[in-house]
Amino acid sequence: MAFPVSSKIIFFLLLFLFLLSATAQRSINVTLGSSITANKANSSWVSPSGEFAFGFQQIIPGGYLLAIWFNKIPERTVVWSANRDRLVQEGSKVQLYADGRLELRDPRDQQIWAATSSRGVAYGSMLNTGNFVLANSSSVVLWQSFDEPTDTLLPTQKLNKGGILVSSFSKTNYSRGRFLFTLQNDGNLVSYTRNFPLDEPIFAYWSTKTTGRGFQVIFNQSGNIFLVAENRSVLNFVSPNEASTSQFYHRAILEYDGVLRHYVYPKSSDSEGGREMAWSSVDFIPSNICTSMGERSGFGACGFNSLCSLGSDQIPHCDCPYGYTLIDPNDRMSGCKPNFVAQNCDEGARETDLFSFIDMPNTNWPFSDYALFKEITEDWCRQDCLNDCFCAVAIYNNGRCWKKQYPLTNGAIDSSLGGKALIKIRNSNATVYSSVFKKSESSTLIIILSVFLGITMFLLLSLLLYVFCFSRQKSKSLQPYQDLPGLNIRRFSFKELEVATNGFKEELGRGACSTVYKGILKNDNIEIVIAVKKLYKLATEGEQEFKAEVNSISRTNHKNLVQLLGYCEEDQNRVLVYEFMSNGSLAKLLIENSRPNWYKRMQIAFATARGICYLHEECKNPIIHCDIKPQNVLLDEFFTAKISDFGLAKLLKPDQSKTTTGIRGTKGYIAPEWFRNMPITVKVDVYSFGILLLELICCRRNYEPDVEFETEMVLADFAYDCYKEGTVNLLVADDEEALGDKRFDKFVMIAIWCIQEEPTLRPTMKRVIQLMEGSVEVPIPPNPTSFGTSV
Predict the structure, then answer these.
(1) Which of 66, 167, 262, 379 lies in disulfide reach of 179, CB 3.0 to 4.6 Å?
(2) Which of 627, 685, 735, 741 is the catalytic position?
(3) Tens-place pLDDT, residues 212-249
(4) Do domains 20-175+236-285 and 489-580 have the same CATH topology?
């Protein structure tokens, strides 16, 4: 069938109108009542140029994001979203209602998001700039997506004061993440870490430093991003650019890694040299986010325990150190966890032989240290970290050693850092606790039943043996041992201890009331080293009284008290059996050996204070030690301090002392009230601890007759004189470690408070610990011989 020319024109005109109506969603205006439903059809409202679209994108199966995206490139890159923190299900709908409301509702008709605007909306429109607007009949914009950005800015878009970009959580998770970029109301343009999942900022890792001047961030049509003052003068070029917006798409995005990047994408559909086109970065801030993080708290650029390094592509890479793995394999910024069992902190089980170090040069976690040592060797640094169960990593650089603990924060690898990280890991051939007990359920059940049956048979045989022995003892008219109920330590025979000590041969120490011998207990080829203390002239000779006192002492349980393992009371023999402390007494460490390092001395001070505090405040019946001194502070193989002889005050006669006055204690450590016929309280131990603390600080005896100046002979007097005159550095001479610790003066002040002559002025041991830890401020101490305000 042939059409005349005029008919052909009419035909094509009608065809054009039909096609236009079929693609109404590409029109400039979105009419009132229009809607889009989330489904696989991916319908959308498209800008006139077709370069941008407004609609639903499926992010995960069944999960949709109401978004704006670049519509002409394969990646369909999202530049704005309405429900980034709450994806909606298929069947959800966005609708421009007749009264001008633009709302997103889920399939149950619950409102998820709405555009806020004044009444009078006549239509909506997806503009060629990437801005979706609601306008009135006079085309005045009443609401626009440009005013509520998510993580992206586009050409012609402005960021006003108070405007914020929040990064996404990851490449594929569009919900709000860990960083924000904002033009503050004070005019400063700043990038912050975010107190995720809350909104408040934590640390500013980049800034234009334009407080009081910044007015608006402009992304102009030429593709330049800059900060202007109110008079429109340029304060800062955030991203100067030479790529034309007529040939390239532009976007600036605060990405999930905290970097604000300016990207361009060629508008030409042709591939360049056979390569597929992609977004390329033309500028970014900060220049190195790995080293820009300067905050002690927070996850940093990568996450706790991880390391950030800048690749050749200028993109930060988050990796785990050797021996660690990602917490979430799908999230590189989730942080890292050790894939080995941490070092045991229990007394006597520090496992130093099961750990070693991996060296990583130019690596640091700059804000996780809890101790710093100067002018030491790398070997010393390694060994000290190995001996410290809290030390996860040591950083060694130019004679300095920083010890780090979990969680490790803001880790980075960069040539500007220098030094090396010594990462402590469990040796691969070491036995890991968790693997020891990995057995099948059936084998575990068999083991449990076997143990149960074995114990049952053992108890039956033991009961028969006890009845047999008891009947024989009764027939011989011998008095049996009658231990007190609840006694939780072993009772030894005197013969056993004679054998263990080889006839009490190897003497470890001697006092006015006891002698200590080294012994070895053997049981099934297992040898346990013990310390055996023979006592003289006890306060109570009766059997039951002695055992009652021993039982009360045995019930004490603290890591800073020497453990009582057992006792013996046969005839006139009264013996106590203790755990063996391989490094002897604190007196030996301070006087006989070379000066121990400052950190070790302070560890001993803290441990001793905690042990005394336990005796005073945490025992069922408070115990006054009465003889705190370096000889009674013993050190185990890891140099952990433990108080010994803490129960002898209960067991000894009143006249048993090293002095001739009938006073309990040792000259130089005895509180003044002993001489004044005053009531004796726990404050006598506080006084003795004050003297011991001064000895630890100064690394000398409390009385030194062979000194250059007579004023330095008595340590307590010398210390107060130095404090009063502001010359406390004289107390430690050339000890740079001590002088380099900002707590040094504070510890001297605490010691002076402890040695106040008036007992009520001395702090309790609980308060002493609080003062040492820094949870309570240390007030200025008075002269120990005067009266003042107590702490």
Answers:
(1) 167
(2) 627
(3) 999 999 999 888 999 999 999 999 989 887 778 888 99
(4) no
